[in-house]
Amino acid sequence: GAVVSQHPSRVICKSGTSVKIECRSLDFQATTMFWYRQFPKKSLMLMATSNEGSKATYEQGVEKDKFLINHASLTLSTLTVTSAHPEDSSFYICSARDDSQPQHFGDGTRLSIL
Amino acid sequence: QQQVKQSPQSLIVQKGGISIINCAYENTAFDYFPWYQQFPGKGPALLIAIRPDVSEKKEGRFTISFNKSAKQFSLHIMDSQPGDSATYFCAASAEIGFQKLVFGTGTRLLVSP
Predict the structure, then answer these.
(1) How many helices (H) and strands (E) does chain B have?
(2) DSSP sequence for A77-101
(3) In this predicted model, what pLDDT tens digit does every residue of A30-64 receive, in sequence order?
(4) Cα(B74)–Cα(B67) distance, integer angstroms
(5) Are B78 and B64 in contact (CB under 8 A)?
(6) Which residues does chain A have within 8 Å of residue B100's beta carbon, measured at their own beta carbons?
(7) How many angstroms away from the CA of A88 is the closest CA of chain B?
(8) Of B32, B36, B76, B37, nearest to B54 (Cα)?
(9) DSSP letters along A25-66, please?
(10) What are the pLDDT digits (tens) for B41-81?
(11) Buried b (16+ CB within 10 A) or exposed e, A22-31
């Protein structure tokens, strides 16, 4: 149980385009979803916390206009990287939880901006 | 105060040996301490977790030792296997604030055959 699916697993796009990443909880209703960014050989850095039906809460230093988060349902959250540039290239990971269990993570999205 | 310090940064253990990774925290509001295992190109997977009301928790070859007064906790991997080679992260969270996890810096474990 507690499966979190993230799509796509890898995306390569040109600078200036917007990229959407989906995070789905497959077998539970996720009251809270989290988005992380991870640089090579580094730890996970929390970007934002989102609750279904409300605006995401962003961590200090994370540009909310650059990283748009939508948590439209109890099983789906999306992260849109707007006007992506090479410095946005990274490994983006989502996690989800409900009130009864810990965070379960997706397998991440490797984003490469050319 | 939100930091979780993790050591060592990397660890090489022979097959069959014991791997030990240590973490320390400052925030006394933390009440949940999980360990995650991450393979390259994958998301972290929950390995084992502990709450401060117990001093030790064991699941198979994995044991967490918790010292509340010292604000330290550690992961012990008994009979380490090459398949255990991965990056391990400790983390901590508090009940309030939707249980946001604060991660340690990670330990890259290599178990040699």
Answers:
(1) 0, 11
(2) EEEEETT--GGG-EEEEEEEE-TTS
(3) 989 999 999 998 999 999 999 887 889 999 999 99
(4) 9
(5) no
(6) 34, 46, 49
(7) 17
(8) B32
(9) ESSS--SEEEEEEE-TT--EEEEEEEETTSPPEEPTT--TTT
(10) 999 999 999 998 999 999 999 999 999 999 999 999 999 99
(11) ebbbeebebb
Considering chain B, what percentage of its residues have pLDDT values greater than 90? 88
User: Pick from B58, B94, B70, B84: which is nearest to B22 by CA?
Assistant: B70
A64: alpha, beta or left? (left if phi > 0; alpha if psi -120 to 50): alpha
Residues in chain B with CB shorter than 8 Å from the CB of A42 are 105-106
The dihedral formed by the CA atoms of A9, A10, A15 and A18, expressed in degrees to the nearest 10: -20
Q: What is the nearest CA distance from A43 to chain B, expressed in angstroms?
A: 5
> Three-state DSSP class for B83?
helix
Question: What letter represents residue A111's amino acid?
Answer: L
For A86, list phi and psi in degrees, rounded to 5: -50, -35
* Residue B66 φ/ψ, nearest 5 degrees: -130, 130
Q: Which residues contact A92 (CB under 8 A, 6 or more apart)?
A: A21, A35, A36, A37, A38, A79, A81, A108, A109, A111
HSE-CB for B87 with a 13 A CA cutoff: 20
Q: Which residue do the tokens 């190109």 mark?
A: B41
Tokens of A56: 């995401």
